[in-house]
Amino acid sequence: MSCDLILVLDAQSPREVLPALRQLQGTVRWAKVGLEMYTACGPDCVREIADLGYNVFLDLKLHDIPNTVAKAVQSASRLPIRMLTLHTCGGREMMEWAVKAQREHAPELLLLGVTVLTSMSATGLNEVGVPDSPERQVVRLGQLAAAAGVRGLVCSPLEIRPLRAVLPAEVALVTPGIRPRDAKADDQTRVMTPAEAAQSGANFIVVGRPIFKAPDPVAAARAILAELTSNASGR
């Protein structure tokens, strides 16, 4: 199983990271646009990044009543995006409506179900009324999403193996919380190295600050990609 790198754009505008984006063209294929940038710039930021040659992962974590989420998926499908997130805790009906909209309007778009945020610990889950561990909650929500037709999930690297044990092999796993061994964990609480995540069964790893804050972003990205390639060839 191969694993690819997604670059996180933690900025309010593509222009803030444009020099690095231009440097990384041809090295990194995927870029993730999250709420911060999308709220600040709207759909234009997606188009700008796609115009640079990146496959865009739009991380909006949709969560609303089924009809509203379906309409949001339909609207997002008009943008040059390859991935789009929704919250699995919205329930089966919401996800089924989202899947129906995706299949009708963007058959190639990969819908990703967000299970438990990587910043959430067991204590945090308990505070919002979930008595289980992050792992058990992730597995529960992951199975629900797969049953609703969602073809990919976002999960912390520590939940990859439990998900792989119960989900169809074709379900893609996208994994934030990735830090090279010499990088800070920042606000992530459940982390792994790139090689560890790939060995566990991730299809994509999501990395931002360790690349953008590196003295040489291109070298940092190439080191991560080399680690992933070495892992794949060593299996």
Structure description:
The protein has 235 residues and is of the alpha/beta class. It has a single domain (4-233), classed as TIM Barrel. The chain has helices at 18-24, 35-41, 43-51, 66-76, 92-105, 122-127, 134-147, 160-166, 194-200, 209-212, 217-233; strands at residues 4-8, 30-33, 55-62, 83-87, 110-114, 152-154, 172-175, 204-207. It has an eight-stranded parallel β-barrel with strand order 1-2-3-4-5-6-7-8, surrounded by seven helices. Strand 7 (172-175), helix 9 (194-200) and strand 8 (204-207) form a beta-alpha-beta unit. Helix 4 packs parallel to helix 5 (92-105). The chain starts with a strand and ends with a helix.
Topology of this structure?
Blueprint: E1 4-8, H1 18-24, E2 30-33, H2 35-41, H3 43-51, E3 55-62, H4 66-76, E4 83-87, H5 92-105, E5 110-114, H6 122-127, H7 134-147, E6 152-154, H8 160-166, E7 172-175, H9 194-200, E8 204-207, H10 209-212, H11 217-233
Parallel strand pairs: 1-2, 1-8, 2-3, 3-4, 4-5, 5-6, 6-7, 7-8
Helix pairs in contact: 4-5, 9-11
What structural keywords apply?
single chain, 235 residues, alpha/beta, TIM Barrel, 8-stranded parallel beta barrel, globular
CATH architecture: Alpha-Beta Barrel
> Mean of the pLDDT scores?
90
How is the main sheet built? 8 strands, parallel, barrel
Count of separate structural domains: 1
CATH topology: TIM Barrel
For the termini, the CA-CA separation is 9 Å
Shape: globular
Assigned CATH superfamily: Aldolase class I
The unreliable regions are: 185-189
Question: What's the total count of β strands?
Answer: 8
Q: In percent terms, what proportion of residues is strand?
A: 15-25%
Secondary-structure-based class equals alpha/beta
Helicity, as a percent range: 40-55%
